[in-house]
Automatic annotation (TrEMBL):
PANTHER family: UDP-N-ACETYLENOLPYRUVOYLGLUCOSAMINE REDUCTASE. GO terms for biological process: cell division; cell wall organization; peptidoglycan biosynthetic process; regulation of cell shape. Its EC number is 1.3.1.98. Its main location: cytoplasm. GO terms for molecular function: FAD binding; UDP-N-acetylmuramate dehydrogenase activity. This is UDP-N-acetylenolpyruvoylglucosamine reductase. The gene is murB. Belongs to the MurB family. Its cofactor is FAD. Residues 32-197 form the FAD-binding PCMH-type domain. It catalyses: UDP-N-acetyl-alpha-D-muramate + NADP(+) = UDP-N-acetyl-3-O-(1-carboxyvinyl)-alpha-D-glucosamine + NADPH + H(+).
Amino acid sequence: MDLDAVIYELEKIFDKKNINYNEPMKNHTSFRVGGPADIFIIPEKTWQVISAIKLFKEHNIPFFIMGNGTNIVVRDGGFKGAVIKLTSLNNISVEGNKIKAQSGAFLSNVSMEALKNSLKGMEFASGIPGTVGGAVTMNAGAYGPEIKDVIESAVLCDYDGNLFCFNRDELELSYRHSIVQSGNYIVLEAVFALEKGDSTAIRSRMEELNRRRADKQPLNYPSAGSTFKRPEGYFAGKLIEDAGLKGYSIGGAKVSEKHAGFIINYNNATAKDIIELIKKVQEIVNEKFGVLLEPEIKIIGEE
């Protein structure tokens, strides 16, 4: 890949403050691990996202779209190509019972806007640390409700820079899945349709869910939330606990003693430690119960 030519073109699209080279990905992921990305850009406008992906595609440069980095592990060798972080695309607006949010807006902020406007339905999202784009991509959920229960539509672009507006059904939302993944789309914004509610009841529900989260989850250590998807008919955390793996560690990575469904970076783990622990947990649970756990987190980059 001709990086010099790409850098020249990129610097026409972005302010230099929005482009970094050899950027350590441990600074941008909730696991706090990961080697450097060759190119790291933070768009402030939608057209910049589209221009960048067209440029990378034209020059055959691999690229990865990220939000707040709460659901990824970047390997220790880093990412050979470009990472596009969307968290500066974070506008949120409210009209009637609908909230429109750009893909880089934090879900927690969308939830707070709903509260301010006495709109119910987004309470479940108040403690989810990711962005709107990641939440739509994964059909994020907590304590029952999921994004599919509140989303009305989303604006996506494909890797050629074409724009599409998909309604809820067209997004093909199911457990931790959407057309965004299977169709190689990028989420640019989403519209959520909520219901009028009582702000005191909404706040109370948010506080209750956040208390439950704090009680049950190891929030004081870097992690990427639930490490594994829920296997049909089982709970990942219970299988891992029943396999005797609570507290099991490799290097600085450990299965949380508070919630076995979480792998945590408890002592300067490397990405290699985390990935090896994921594989070990899969292997032991499969041996004991015949269930192959599927990671919920995405692993990218080079060894």
